[in-house]
Amino acid sequence: VFIAQSRASGSHRDLEDEELTRIFVMIPKTYTEEDLREKFKMYGDIEYCSIIKNKTTGESKGLGYVRYLKPSQAARAIEECDRSYRAILAEPKNKSSESFEHDYYTNNMRQDLRGNTLPFCMQPEFCSFEKTETRIQEPVSKRLSVVSRLPFIQEQLFALFDLVPGLEYCDVQRDPHTNSGYAVIQYSTAASAIYAKYKLHGFEYPPGNRLTVIFLEDGNDSSE
């Protein structure tokens, strides 16, 4: 259905090149382009695979493109691949790829935070923690400190951390001498704070601006 609708909306050749044969997927950051090709070659002939990387560090962002030779192959990949890949049709190259990637990543982050499971953990290769990493080494609390190199907007930061249940308050503080952002977040339980730190430490919000999230002492017994 979506192929038929897209074809009716413009040039058949251009659409086939840009909208109907290229898919966008969420992948483990350890994946190489060969890993990506290996996972998706069963659905059809692949023209190319590419992994989106941080322009500064060269590290994978955990996102990638797969371009097939035929629209039917791309459609099959979207329909049949594991749901953890969150496969969708990619935006045409002439549109803003960074905006598309940011919207896709943010939307999937919202789904992960609202759900009861962590992404990719149904498969061992997707798990973010090693099995030996069974205890959190740092003291935990219900309160978090959030720092970034860009200033925060109160409403936006509140909306981001409110995706984790139990947010009690979000206090954005401004330093008149620097342009950096600093905020204090507090949840009703330590469990919510731990989950928020795990999900949002290192998250780029907005894209290119990495958040640093650490625990703040809240006066309670952290051994619980």
Q: Fill in the CATH topology of the domain at 17-89.
A: Alpha-Beta Plaits
Q: What is the tally of helical segments? A: 7
User: What structural category characterises the helix and strand content?
Assistant: alpha+beta
Q: Could you give the count of β-strands?
A: 8
Strand arrangement in the largest pleated sheet: 2-3-1-4
Characteristics:
single chain, 224 residues, alpha+beta, Alpha-Beta Plaits, 4-stranded antiparallel β-sheet
Write the layout of secondary structure elements.
Elements: H1 2-8, H2 12-18, E1 22-26, H3 33-40, E2 46-53, E3 60-68, H4 71-80, E4 88-89, H5 97-114, E5 143-148, H6 154-161, E6 167-174, E7 181-187, H7 190-200, E8 212-216
Antiparallel strand pairs: 1-3, 1-4, 2-3, 5-7, 5-8, 6-7
Characterization of this structure:
Helix content is 31%, strand content 22%. With 224 residues, the protein is an alpha+beta fold. Among the domains are: 17-89, Alpha-Beta Plaits; 143-215, RRM (RNA recognition motif) domain (Alpha-Beta Plaits, 2-Layer Sandwich), CATH 3.30.70.330. The protein has a four-stranded antiparallel β-sheet. Strands 6-7-5-8 form a four-stranded antiparallel β-sheet, covered by helices on one side. The chain starts with a helix and ends in an 8-residue tail after the last strand. The model is unreliable at 11-16 and 116-136 (pLDDT under 50).
